[in-house]
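I have a small job for you when you get a moment. Can you supply me with one protein entry, sequence and fold together? It will help me judge whether the discrete encoding reads sensibly. Write everything out right here, beneath this request:
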Amino acid sequence: MLDKVTRLLLVEDDEDDYILTCDYLEQLDSHTFDIDWISSPEQAISILSKNDHDICLLDYRLGASNGLSVLKKAIANGFSGPIIMLTGQSNDELDSAALDAGAVDYLIKTEMSSSRFARAIRYALARKDVEGERVERLKAEAENRSKDRFLAHLSHELRTPLSSILGYTELLLQSDFSKQAENELGVIYRNGKHLLSLLNDVLDLSKIAADKLELTLSEVNLDSMLADVYTLMRVSVLDKGLNLRFESLQPLPLIVRVDATRVRQILINLINNAVKFTEKGEIVVSAWTEWVDGKEMLFFSIKDSGMGIAPEKQALIFKPFEQIADVESRSVGGAGLGLAICAELLARMHGSIDLTSRIGEGSTFTISVYPGDIGEVERQVLNFSSGSQLQAKSAPCKVTGRVLVVDDLRDLRMLVGHMISTCGARVDYAEHGQQALEKVRIAEAYRSPYDIIFIDIHMPVMGGKEATIELRKMGYTGPIIALTAATMKGIHEELAALGFNDVIPKPVDSSSLYQCLQDYLVSPEHAPQAKNIHSDKAVIEKKQRFLLVEDDQDAAQITQLLLESLGVETVITSTCAQCLQTLNHDQQFNKVLLDMHLPDGRGVDLGKQINQRYPDLSLVIVSGAEPDPKQIKDLNINHVLLKPINLSLLETLISS
């Protein structure tokens, strides 16, 4: 017998039939019934309207009244449970009328002693349970959709003002004003970035909880990815007086198939935590492969010489909102989300995370990810050396010329480009060799060739070696510099034979880069006047124009200022109607940037209209939340920019 009690309402005006029905119900071992007996039709309608019962047995004849009228009124008043109609004799017409009125079954009272009665009760309750589950599922789905809409709206509302805060701060830091308020601007910028990091963590955790987080697997150069992480983390480590060392314990595959963004996110999170809780000593990141359950897994360990973690805390730190440090002391910042997100991401990548730690002796986090089938992939021992000095804030040399930086990792690409641009050279970017070839062809066609090319060796689509061979075949005679983490014996001779002029090892050292620029580019005072005039003319001829559709005035203004600081003429409209009106008179735009949420419509719908009227225009979605891929699948979308917008994002957009 089941423990759950089923509340049953029996509407019957014959006491003998009531007693018999109770006896039959007690004989059913599938349910335990709590029976309420009502003989009055009016009272039955009143009670059924409260919807407090799981099932109702309703007699067809209730004195002078008709059970069908009770049935119809009860359902109309909101009773959602099954109603079985009871009658003293068989009547096909009555059977059909009862079912049409909403009854789930029709029983003759003489059948109540048979198995048909038990089956009718059981089926009616089963259908009720199924319907209840369906309703609950629909409610849950509606709530999830509501949560998704809320998160998207919240993300947009928070990221939009962050665009203004970070954008204006970035502009001020690059202006003469920063000399008077460099410290204050630095505080604003760092706290703005910290706020953005917390926002990303909360949204990531929400996506994980809703099972909405998707991984994007692709072939990634492991040496480039680790060099990128090293370069990004080196400054913050040195700022605290610590040493950062990367090492490979064995030859590692050069190409792995992972979600590079998420693996970098995990490594950076763990290294950041190590920096937070380490006051002196070093942080060592080790990498190796190991067979686990028939699969070769990629392992990383992040070891610090910090304060260590108490045993009772070790089981808690992978839970959301748990922090290692005492919350009240606030000795370190953070919301306690990072490790929880790392654990969830690794689980989705068929990996794991483990911790060993002792108080006062430091901690070691060990993570594993599945790198795909790496059985036939070329392997090398990677060797990362940690420099002892911070990179200089200002470049020690001044040069002029056009430079192309080619690397599949955006952050590393932009870092190298920024270092070059501080010396005075103009920088363009490419994500792989094939894109580099196209950019060189375009530059030659405009009679404004690149004076030097920095190119990564290992990239998807086309690597640096293949691209250099093709560049030389095309007739490009300028210097080509290899960026590579592979610094084995003989690499210089091999690359020179392929057409390279020089090699800069990864992680890129600023002094090596600056020396290379001095060797191959000319200083402004030695640049021929005619060349400068010609270059300026080429810049004017090729100046880009963007149409920005953004209803937030502050966000629109800072995006316009950032774009114009990069030499892009920008026209602003704030609604769908204004955008279409502008395009009706002027279609000479390289790109149209569409905000997802506009006062008179959605950016996606506006994009569809633009595609229909002006199919040659290049569209870019600007959003405070990641748009649904299904929404933009059919649009001619070249890029999606996630707010807050910054200079590096816009530089990448302009160069694409």
